[in-house]
Amino acid sequence: MAFQSSQASETAKTPVPDTLTWTVPFGVGGGTDVWARFMSHWVGESLENHPAIVINNVPGGGSITGANLFYSRARSNGAEMIVTSASTQYPAMLKDPRVRFDYSRWTPIIAAPTGGVVYAQSSMGEDPKKIMEHLRQHETKFGAQTPTGLELPILLAFDMLGLQVDPVFGMRSRGEGRLAFERGEAGIDFQTTSAYFSSVTPLVKSGQAVPLFSLGVMNDDNIIVRDPAFPDLPTFSELYLAQPDTSRDDMAYQVYHKFFASGYALQKLLLVPRDIDASLLATYLDAARKLAKNPEFLEAARQRIGPYDPVTGEVAARQLEAAMQMSQERRQWIVDWLKQRHDIRVVTQ
Amino acid sequence: MFESMVSGIGQILTVSHLLYMCLGVSVGLLVGIIPGLGGIAGMALLLPFLYGMDPGLALGMLMGMVAVIPTGDTFASVLMGIPGSSSSQATVMDGFPLAKKGQAARALSSAFLSSLCGGVIGALILTIFILMARPLVLGFSSSELFVLTMLGLAMVAVLSGGQLFKGIAACGLGLLVGAMGTAPATGEFRLNMGIEYLFDGIPLVVVGLGIFAIPEIIELMIQKSSIARDQAGLGKGWKRGVLDVWQNRGLVARCAGIGSIIGTIPGLAGSVVDWLTYGYASRTVKGEKHFGQGDIRGVIAPESANNACACGAMVPTLLFGVPGSGTAAIFLGGLLLLGLEPGVSMITTHLDLTYNIIWSLALANILGAAFCLMLARPVAQLTRVPFALIAPVITMLVLFAAYQATRSLGDWYSLIAIGAIGLMFKQAGWSRPAFLIGFVLAPGAETYFYQSIQFNGLAGFMRPGVLIILSITALALLYPLGRKLLARRRNTASDKTAATTVVEKTQATWGVVDMILVVGMLLVAALSWYDVRDISFIAHVFPMLSIVFLGGGALAVAIQIRTEGAIRVEQPALQGLCWLAGLLMVVVVASVLGFVSTAALGSLLFLTFVARAHWLTIVLITLGIVAFLLGMQSLLSLQYPSGLLDGLILPSS
Question: Which of B186, B267, B330 shows the shortest C-beta gap to A28?
Answer without folding.
Answer: B330
